Fold Carbon monoxide dehydrogenase large chain.
Amino acid sequence: MNDLSPERQERSANLKGMGCSRKRVEDARFTQGKGNYVDDIKLDGMLHGDFVRSPYAHARVVSINKDAALALPGVVAVLTAEDLAPLNLHWMPTLAGDKQMVLADGKVLFQGQEVAFVVASDRYVAADAVELVEVEYEELPVITDPFESLKSDVVLREDLAGQTEGAHGPRKHHNHIFTWEQGEEAATNQVIDNADIVAEESMYYHRTHPCPLETCGSVASMDKVNGKLTLWGTFQAPHVVRTVASLLSGIEEHNIRVISPDIGGGFGNKVGVYPGYVCSIVASIVTGVPVKWVEDRMENLMSTAFARDYHMTGKIAATKDGKITGLHCHVTADHGGFDACADPTKFPAGFMNICTGSYDIPTAYLAVDGVYTNKAPGGVSYRCSFRVTEAVYFIERMIEVLAIKLDMDAAELRRINFIKKEQFPYTAALGWEYDSGDYHTAWDKALKSVDYEGLRKEQAERVEAFKRGETRTLMGIGLSFFTEIVGAGPVKNCDILGMGMFDSCEIRIHPTGSAIARLGTISQGQGHATTFAQILASEIGISADSITIEEGDTDTAPYGLGTYGSRSTPVAGAATALAGRKIRAKAQMIAAYLLEVHDDDVEFDIDRFVVKGAPEKFKTMKEIAYAAYNQAIPGIEPGLEAVSYYDPPNMTYPFGAYVCVMDIDVDTGVPEIRRFYALDDCGTRINPMIIEGQVHGGLTEALAVALGQEIAYDELGNVKTGTLMDFFLPTAWEVPNYETDYTVTPSPHHPIGAKGVGESPHVGGVPCFSNAIQDAFRPFGNTHTNMPHDHWRIWQTANGLGLHD
Ligand code: PCD
Ligand SMILES: [Cu+]
């Protein structure tokens, strides 16, 4: 039955199952203005909240005078830490085991920190009242540099004074949060001391921000009559928010309903818990009416979860012919005023220990020091919440730096160090077990597709022409090969606030053969309603068009840990396939009964069960569904439903090979991206068109970060890039035409072999863009310059190398 006859081909195509570039079902709604976002929620008598925020990065709050604000018509309440303290809600736990002020308690630690929450009859009145709250501050010395912070006498976190133990072990200094070590320090140092060649580099992965189209917000509605709290919000993990809200407020969990409606982009920015959520809840409890809080763009950029801010120093050791023997990495991680990273509990620096990359490196050591400064907390977001972006940037830069030291081609250096296909499952020196990979095939395909040798020849000719004064542009060839680690995670080592990181799917087949499936994840634009229906279509033989996918309502969806870290496909996608298989197993029994044969004598065929050897005898899934509800079948319960909670045995390790070709104008510092080729291997592909969209989006965000985007601070801790006037968001103008490609190396442990893909293009894209810039200047002695490579910095690099003389 393995041939696909035209008839079977047609039945299969009708399902729109896995592998089909099914059009996104959510788009009709979104493109016609029918999306339902938090700010679209309007309830009777709803009040609006707005924050008084600190203009200072570090100051004592001497006094707060609410009188003028309260006197403004329409103002209902002004909440401060003093009001929240009796409820014990003036501080909240962070996802990283630290705690964070909900409203300034005696001092502020970053510019934009929440000081008071004004509640008023409308959003504009609330904003006017914010201006009328008089706060007296006493400025304190500001620290924006983590290295200075570790030397400073200034105690940033007075609440932790004298505490030598933090959530992740000993603290070395009053501004130190944790040290996290992985690997063998002594062995690594020994390898480095005895190596033929050692390349060293320090690099700064600057602070950025995902800047989703929709900012963060929530609507809280406390119904005091029946004791139920409903909370709508921009939550990437609605179930966890419900649990946290219950623990914080003391309201029993069944009396809290959390709903993530449509979300206008999350990108990790909406994983954490923000003071706005807590304040809207408290305000609704206090006033007895619904309260909405929606931040504006500046608030979003200044105060919500940023990304990166990692100072990384590496040493990489190799033999003369380029075989890598050891890797040493130290990170000073700037976490801002509170440690609010959303990493799994046991990983205070996320999965930074994937920093040996795609290479067979026998010995390695990583140490990360987390440090407090006067900047906004967070550090979790932007297409790899779990620091894989930093890790891949680090190793892909170290490879380039080593290639320079060895005077070797960087593509070849990668090739000779790749983990070989037959080495999988491969256990890396820093502990991870990579599930599957075929790096050489992907690399060869990529290099061939772009005519790598031809490009290098052209580049060398350009350098000669430049030296002869015939051109003022240089050519950069950016390479990157990345291995991602997504799908957290096995419950045994991954949890958030104690909740194991499984995920779930619940399916209900209706009598007429259509279905609804609910998952513990939540789409923020990824297209889950489209793709999860495709997984099910292939598993249960019902067309994807007849399956509704629902996520984000804790009253109806099974418990799950949410969507970030590209975990939906690896974890909830697996739960979906397995729940589908439970449906199929029951359907098989029903079919056998209807066909009057033994269970083992029927087999699944696309959309039906057929009697083995007699394909004309069959029952379609539609018929089986109907029978499940209208016939008494001996020994079988009525109905057709299944639920699956999936604890993945391992993470999935997607990978990819990227090449970027740039022409850089040495006199203006303007790079022109000529070509960008991206090969992604995410195992079994569910929807190729959605994957392509994910890759385009991730690459564009990579371009943004590599070429200009930054949350920059001045020495007083003022955010210099808090508006879209200064914060670079690429538009169609800057974005090149991406060429996408793929190989398929299925995950051996995932039920359908799929790995995540959403984060990959960002993780692999940033080093690729950066390497292209660096590579253009390699012939003139450049080894490394820090991102973001905006025109000014590129110009400076050229100038520093004497290219303007
Ligand atoms: N193999 C495969 C894989 C995958 N897929 C598809 O694709 C997507 C994606 O997926 P994934 O990878 O699994 O992921 P998810 O979990 O779903 O998601 C998440 C991600 O996602 C991305 N992408 C996106 N998109 C959009 N539109 N929006 C958004 O927001 C976003 N975000 C971002 C991020 S950042 Mo983090 O949070 O930082 O951690 S992480 C992240 C979906 O739909 C799915 O189904 C397919 O098809 N196939
Ligand atoms: Cu990640």
Summary: Residues 236, 265-268, 271, 381-385, 524-528, 531, 563-569, 682-687, 690-691, 694, 697, 754-759 surround PCD (ligand 1) (CB under 6 Å). The first strand starts at residue 47 and ends at 53. The chain has a mean pLDDT of 97. The CA atoms of residues 307 and 379 lie 4 Å apart.
